[in-house]
Amino acid sequence: MTPAVEAAPTTLVAALRMPVWNILTRRADGIRRDLPPRPEAPTERLAWLRSLNPEQARRAALLDHLDALRGHVTGCPALGYAIDDPMPEPALQEAEGFNPHLTALIAVYRAACPGG
Fold first, then answer.
1. Is 24:78 a contact under the CB 8 Å cutoff?
2. Torsion angle of the four alpha carbons 78, 40, 60, 49, in this order, in degrees rounded to the nearest 10
3. What's the rounded Cα separation, in Å, for the pair 70 and 75?
4. Is the dihedral of CA 38, 42, 44, 45 positive or negative?
């Protein structure tokens, strides 16, 4: 069932922003808890990355990806995404499937905004 939401892109972005951010945050927090503590200093971060096993390194990369998308959907543009795209497709893909209502709302957004 599709949520009853006006299909104007700005309305849909407003309706998606917090739910998408919440899902991305929950996923990032779960990964963060499973990894060894990540240092902030660049030299220490490099040593940390080198200490991870392949699965942990994959999850650390996903964590960085989720953190960038979280920032982007709240107005802090991430590298590789258009500044004027408030809801990039990768953010929708990473949030999709965790909440049926949100997944339906994402489908409405995609239908209203073909091609991003």
1. no
2. 130
3. 9
4. positive
Q: Rounded CA gap, 111 and 116, in Å?
A: 10
Q: Read off the amino acid at residue 103.
A: T
Token pair 């953010």 is at which residue? 91
Confidence of residue 10 (pLDDT cuts 50, 70, 90): confident
Using H for helix, E for strand and C for coil, what is the string for 23-90?
HHHHHHHHHHHHCCCCCCCHHHHHHHHHHCCHHHHHHHHHHHHHHHHHHHHCCCCCCCCCCCCCCCHH
Taking the C-alpha atoms of residue 109 and residue 116, their distance in angstroms, rounded to an integer, is 9
Q: Give the pLDDT confidence of 17-66 residue by residue, as tens digits.
A: 999 999 999 999 999 999 999 999 989 999 999 999 999 999 999 999 99
Amino acid sitting at position 39: P
